[in-house]
Write a structure and sequence with these properties.
Strands 5-6-7-8-10-12-13-14 form an 8-stranded parallel β-barrel, surrounded by 4 helices. A two-stranded parallel ribbon has the order 1-2. It has 16 helices and 14 strands. The protein is of the alpha/beta class.
Length: 438
């Protein structure tokens, strides 16, 4: 059966194309520096937003028109797999991602759930034999079901901790079987509503115990994928323990988990934490912890996670600047954890949305690469901090200075001269590069 009859195989047609179902800027074979666009960007389709999201919001029922909507249970799950691989092929997507409950319905017991999961994983494995699309990462949904009302690994209920561990055990087995390049932990409810009823120390200790168990089981079964933590500050939990990269990094280092984990950074989560997307990428990069990206954007007028497809070229350029400086994403990728707007309910809109996001990051890649190639920001920053290349600045960097020598240096200094940061000039330069890159 064909699920997307009206959609052709999406091709690159260039910036002057008027075809809505064609790439204008993303040319997977185009070389940017030492690798192709496809190798740099490593795009991934999010199974949940693309094939299971039905348009439901707090104020209205689902309205998405999908060719599989008439089906239920395992029949629905199987149809989604068929539709997914048709979509991957037409989009020429290198990767996809999923939660366990995205691909198979839960049963009345975990045993029944695992049986359903195995049946769908069999089907996915068969499709992957003839598809170029690989599994970027999978994960366990430990936030939707009422059992996770108080968290999963941080729950006050030990049975929930055990259930969560069993789900991740199965998830790691699926990851190994399907050749996942990563495994993600998103602690949707790993946090608290009020300190009045929370043992924060125990909850964080238990979360660390949980992660160490996952590391040990991955070693036991020979799963060599990268473990990723996806920070988010709030929603649904009032205060989540993985608030941002800096908070997550402190947690990992405290519990000796940093050798095993990196971060999967989502743009919209960064803004919810009061940061820019590039800030979170920079913090991860300079600490050697940048693993993968959930590529989306939020609405600056709304204070929640809107998961929109990325079209802000300024943001995609600054994101790709960090990714290029990182040497790429390694085993990670750019996963479109994004959903079409409720008003974009036709099946073809799924292609239009992904094309918009892929083109936006392709532009960002080209502009960021040119900025780095021309040393635009590097030279400016080097000049701004040049006082550390000689004299007292050099002594500070080399560890030769102390409070006494620093006092002696400034004690009789009549004036300290600062220079402008020229941030407006740099923003104008960024615009110039954006406007002249093509």
């Amino acid at each position: 059966m064909t699920y997307f009859e009206s959609a052709p195989k999406i091709q690159y047609e260039g910036p002057t194309s008027k075809n809505a179902l064609a790439f204008k800027f993303y040319n997977p074979e185009e070389k940017i520096g030492d690798r192709t666009m496809e190798e740099w960007l490593r795009f991934s389709v999010a199974y949940w937003h693309t094939f299971t999201y039905d348009g439901t919001d707090p104020f209205g029922h689902g309205n998405m028109i999908r060719p599989w909507n008439h089906l239920k249970g395992m029949d629905l799950a199987k149809a989604r797999v068929e539709a997914a691989f048709e979509f991957f092929d037409k989009l020429n997507a290198p990767f996809f991602c999923f939660h366990d409950v995205d691909i198979a319905p839960e049963g009345e017991t975990l045993r029944e759930t695992n049986k359903n999961l195995d049946e769908i994983v069999d089907m996915i494995e068969d499709y992957m034999k003839t598809s170029k699309t690989k599994l970027l990462w999978n994960t366990a949904n430990m936030f939707s079901h009422p059992r996770f009302v108080h968290g999963a690994a941080t729950s006050c209920n030990a049975d929930v901790f055990a259930f969560s561990a069993a789900k991740v055990k199965k998830g790691l087995e699926v990851a190994k079987r399907l050749g996942a390049e990563n495994y993600v932990f998103w602690g949707g409810r790993e946090g608290y509503e009020s300190l009045l009823n929370t043992d924060m120390g125990l909850e964080q200790d238990n979360l660390a115990r949980f992660f160490h168990m996952a590391v040990e089981y991955a070693k036991e079964i020979g799963f060599a994928g990268q473990f990723l933590i996806e920070p988010k500050p709030k929603e649904p939990t009032k205060h989540q323990y993985d608030f941002d990269v800096a908070t997550g990094l402190a947690f990992l280092k405290k519990y000796d988990l940093d050798p095993y984990f990196k971060f999967n950074i989502e743009a919209n989560h960064a803004t919810l934490a009061g940061h820019t997307f590039e800030h979170e990428l920079r913090v991860a990069r300079i600490n050697g912890m940048l693993g993968s990206v959930d590529a989306n954007q939020g609405d600056p007028l709304l204070g929640w996670d809107t998961d929109e497809f990325p079209t802000d070229l300024n943001a995609t350029t600054l994101a790709m600047y960090e990714i290029i400086k990182n040497g790429g994403l390694g085993k990670g990728g750019l996963n479109f954890d994004a959903k079409v707007r409720r008003g974009s309910f036709e099946p073809e809109d799924l292609f239009r949305a992904h094309i918009a996001g892929m083109d936006s990051f392709a532009v960002g890649l080209k502009v960021a690469h040119k900025l780095i190639e021309d040393h635009v920001l590097d030279d400016f920053i080097a000049n701004r901090y040049r006082s550390y290349n000689e004299g007292i600045g050099k002594e500070i960097i080399q560890g030769k200075a102390d409070f006494k020598t620093l006092e002696e240096h400034v004690l009789d200094m009549r004036e300290i001269k600062n220079e402008s940061g020229h941030v407006e000039e740099l923003r104008a330069l960024l615009n110039q590069y954006l406007l002249t890159a093509f």
